[in-house]
Amino acid sequence: MSDESAEIPHFDPAAIASLRNVAGDQGAAFVAEMAQLFLDETSRSLSDLAKARDLGDWRLVSRISHSLKSSAATLGLMRFSAACKALELDTKAAISTPQTAKLAAAVFDTFEEAKPTLRDLA
Q: How far does Cα 101 stand from its chain's mean position?
């Protein structure tokens, strides 16, 4: 992980507070459901991301990264969101760069870091 990504907080609890506020009386249940859904869906998305990476389908890598970036930010997973954004931008032109492998690895690593937080929320 780069020094720059280490400065990004792993988790922003304000995002969860916002979700709870939006859901009102059902806030805790809503957040738990969202966290579990994100865990399940992201595991599948990362499997697809790995396949796309291995096939050199950089357009798909960029699309998956874009989708994960937004969802992660909604749940306050700021470091994971930033890693996804970096990979999305790197592969946006549907090509890989010398940084692509490192950026893809950071996406997988930061999701592993985020899993305990997601499990606590779920």
A: 17
Nearest to 6 by CA among 59, 87, 82: 82
Specify the CATH number for the domain of residue 56: 1.20.120.160
Q: How many domains does the chain have?
A: 1
- DSSP secondary structure code for residue 26 in this structure: G
Residues 88-110: tens digit of each pLDDT: 999 999 999 999 999 999 999 99
- Asked whether the beta carbons of 114 and 10 are under 8 A apart, the reply is yes
Distance set, CA 22 to CA 7, 13, 25, 43, 78 (Å): 29, 14, 9, 26, 20
H or E element: which one contains 57?
none
* Alpha carbon distance 26, 29 (integer Å): 6
Q: CA 82 to CA 45: how far, in whole Å?
A: 16
